[in-house]
Structures are given as C-alpha cells and as structure tokens.
Amino acid sequence: MMHWIIxxxxxxxxxxxxxxxxxxxxxTLARIASVFGTGLLLAxxxxxxxxxxxxxxxVYRLGDWPAPFGIVLVLDRLSALMVLLTALLALIVLVHAxxxxxxxxxxxxxxxxxxxxxGICGAFLTGDIFNLFVFFExxxxxxYGLMIHSGGKERIRAxxxxxxxxxxxxxxxxxxxxxxxxSTGTLNIADLAARLPEIPAEESSLVRVAVILLMIxxxxxxxxxxxxxxxxxxxxxxxxxxxxxxxxxxxVGAYAILRVHTTVFGPGSPGTEDLAGTWLFxxxxxxxxxxxxxxxxxxxxxxxxxxxxIGSMGTLLVAVAVFSAPAxxxxxxxxxxxxxxxxxxxxxxxxxxxxxxxxALSPQPxxxxxxxFAALFFGAAIAMAGMPPLSGFLGKLLVLxxxxxxxxxxxxxxxxxxxxxxxxxxxxxxxTVLFWKSTATAGPVLDxxxxxxxxQDLPAPATVAQVAPVMLALAILGGLAxxxxxxxxxxQDTSAQLFDRQGYVxxxxxxxEER
Amino acid sequence: xxIIVASSIGVLTAGGVYLLLRLRTFPVILxxxxxxxxxxxxxxxxxxxxxxxxxxxxxxxxASYTDPLPQALVLTAIVxxxxxxxxxxxxxxxxxxxADSDRIDIAQDDDDAQAENERPA
Lengths: 515, 121
Hints:
heterodimer; A: mainly alpha; two-stranded antiparallel ribbon; 19 helices; 2 strands; B: mainly alpha; Helix Hairpins
C-alpha cells in the first residue's frame, strides 16, 4: 500500500517510453495505451485522495533514506487534490485530442503527453525544492514538444519564445536554489521550514534574496504580471488540446507559491515574515487588469482565452497573496474551477475554430451546429467570467469574502469586480461576433481561402466523442457549484493542513521506524 | 580563489544576459549556455569552496570534507541544461528553416498584421 504514492510518477514514466518506442507506428495502439494509462492514473489519484482525506501526511522515502538526507515524496490533502485535478483534466483533454484527431497531426503526442503528466504529478508530490526543479524541467521539456506539435511557422516561432523564456526561468530557479542552499544548508521543504525560524532577522538577507528569486521563478510559471508576457503568444498558438492541458501548468506555479511560501517562508520565520505577500499582492492586482484589458482588446479567439487565463491567475494569486487559511481555501476552490473553465474554453474554441477559416474575431458565415457551439461557449464563458450559476461565481465570491483586510479589500474587490465586468464584456462581444453575426452573414464561403487547413475543406458536424469532453468539463463546473458546500469544507481542511507547518515538519522528518 | 570564482560567475552572467537580449536565435542559445555555466559554477560554490578535500566523510583520515550535495545538484543541473540546449537548438533550427529569419520576436507583429488584414473594412 505504501508504494501508491510514487505511482503517479512511475506509471506515466514507464508508459511514455513504451508508447514512444513500441507503439509509434500504430496510432490506435498508442491511443488505447494512453487512455488506459490516464484512466489508471485517475483511479490512483482517487485512491490517493481517499488516503489523504483523513488529514494525515504520508511520506514516501525513496530508497528508504530518512528525510533530510534522502529524497522524499509527500502526500497531503493539497498534493492529492492537485494530482486528482491533473488526472481528471488529462483524461478530458486526451479524449478530445483523440476525437478531433489532433494526436495524429504530429509524432509522439501520446508519449509527450505521458511525460508531461509525469512531470506535473511529480511537481505536486515532491518534498524538496531541488526535485521540484527537476520535475519542472520534465514537464517543461515535454511541453516544448507538445507546444510545437503539428508544426507550422507561427507555432514554432511562439514555441521558440516559450522555450527561451522558460530556460531563462530555469536558470533563475537554479540561482535561487544555490542562494537558498548557501544560507540554510538544506533544500528539503520540511527541513527548511524547521531551520528558517532559527535564522535571526539580521542575518536573513540572503534568505530574503532567495525568497524573492523563488517568487519570480514561480511567477513566471504562473504568468504573474511582470513575467506574464510569454503566455498569450504560446497558449494562443499551441494546439488547442495542448493549451487546455497547459491550464494545469500555470496552476503548478500557483501550487509552488502556496507550498513554498506558506510551509517554508510563512509567518514565524523572522526574516521573511510578509515578504512574499507584499510583492505578490500588487502584482496579482495588475495581472487581473492585464487579463481583463487583454480580453477586451483581443482580435482573435485563442488570445482572448489566453488573456482570460491570465485574469483568472490574477484572481487566484490575489487570494494566495493574503496568506491566510480562509483565503487559501477560497484560492483552492477558484483554482479547481479556473482549471476546468480554461480547459473547457480552449476545447470549445478548438471545435469552433477548426470549422472556420481562421480564429479571427470577424463575422464569417455560420458553421454547422452553430447553436450547439454557441450554447457551449456561453456556458464556459460565464463560468470563466464568474457569473452565476456556475462555479466561477461562487469562486469569486469566496475570494472576495476572504479578503477583508482594510489595506487590501479596496484594491482586491475593485480589481476583481471591474475585471469580471470587462471580461464579461469581452466574452459577450466575442460570442456575438462568432455566433450571432455569423448567422446574419450568409454568403459565399470561398473568399478567404488563404488560411484554410486541409482538414476544414468540408466542416463536418462534431461527433458525440468530440463534444463529450467539453460537456464533462461543463458538468464538473456545474457539480462544483452544486456541491460547493462539501467541496469548500474539504478545501478548508486542506488549507488548515497547509498552514499547520509543524505537522508537516513532524511527519516528514519523523525518524524511520525500526524493522 | 573566492574573488576569481565570484567574478567569473559575474562575467558569465553578464555575458549571458547580454546575449539573451540580442533577440536572434544563435546569440540567445549561446547566452543561455553561458548562463547555465554561470549557474553551475554558482551552485558548485554554494556549499562553500574547499581545496583538496573529498566530497565524502572519510573515517580514516581527518574529518574535513567538502559538501557533497552541491556536486550532486550540479551534476543534475548540467544534464538538464545539456538536454534543454539540445531541444532549443532543434527548435531554433526549425524556426529558422520555417520562417527564413532567425529573429525570435517577429511572431507577434505577424499576428497583428494578420488580424488587421482579416478585419472587415
């Protein structure tokens, strides 16, 4: 039973080379293996969530070396939740990619997909910061391949920028790790949390440098304000299912901020008391503004959604920046919601855009199933913008409710509310142009042939398998709203556990039992 | 020795950042390589510099040893940065062959121009 914890890392890691080397000539076999593996991952994630639900912190020691010296994987409620989120999202995205044939448009989609899952699950489960770096690199190197999957000039250019940006971020991560190791002599999260309070405030300048460097690194992953600029181009040009999977990658950054900056640098360590929140909060406010204005200003559908992802990351990080238990549980609710909302939007955009001549927001003749797509887009858009009845509304309400500190309330409330309004306007405009004006412009289709892909010569109606993942994502959003009570009760336990630093430290650094 | 290591890290970083800002694929790759050298040396130095001492605790000689952890970290970091550079070279080559230009910042302009052309008159 103990070895369950490492399975979300080992399973994709074993499956990916098998798919890559054995099944590369048979797409059907690769599809079956990939779906089977992801389904198994979901089952394991469910098992882990049940295991962690009682509030205990499970530690998996690789090679059975005790914690500060060996490498550990740590499973608590937060890790279990994030792994479950990843597995569920991955299954939705995978079914969509298979049903729309995206996976056959380039080589090694399924192998890269599994490697990406391995990196993401590893990042959520790891118990020390250096392995966080290693798993970041694994998920990034897989994402480079997925990002330029199926090729094309624009995509490869955007991919190049994305790679350069992330490599620079990785370098910064290593500098941060070096600084942190110099000042504390350890990189294990629990050990850091135990040692940092012992460092007196006047000797903590190096630690403060490391805190800010780490914050910048995670902000790059989470697309926070000064370092968000890689996101619109790369998400807008990535294949749509890949962009939907990337919805979890920004959350890896948010998770890392939560984990490192609450468990390690949280209140209690004299040198770094409020350092993270002080910088994170204004940056998150500006991020919301950029997201909202980006949604208003976008002239193509995919960048519009990418900017709404930035806006949702801003909302999420505003709640994270408060660094209190209620705000964190609100942030977690919003994190679950915004992951599925963003993925859902990208998948719908894929269904719509592949049936049009381009993804420009200009009136074009209506495609098949205009009404169905309009309804789906409407549902996902109101979820993303935070309108009732879907979970975006409750998520934003929880976030607003959690931020009541006098210095922060005014900024946060006005940013979130005005940002939501602008997002609604942007989405309403996009939906109007895409679905309503298109029914008014009837006429010859063949005046813009330049951008036509071979696949869209004859727009075929979407099959059940193509719509099902979107429907499932929307159903999850609805379910999240209906079961908001139990879910947020669970998330409150989760954030209480996250803020219980001593419990985490004791569980991880506990001496190994004699056998 | 400290001053030599510190200034070499500084020079490598400065050169790397300068090349990174050149916005052409080849200098950017070189710049990232320089940066990764800088960070490797920095990581190596992060456990403290010691001369002529093994990275393991010897039970026969004296108890002095150099910190082994940074060496393990540097090994991992070198492997990763090698792999990443290889990926970057391949993607850069692909972008150059596809687009006939090695600038890495044109895509955005193209997007705007494309959207501009598609707007209704």
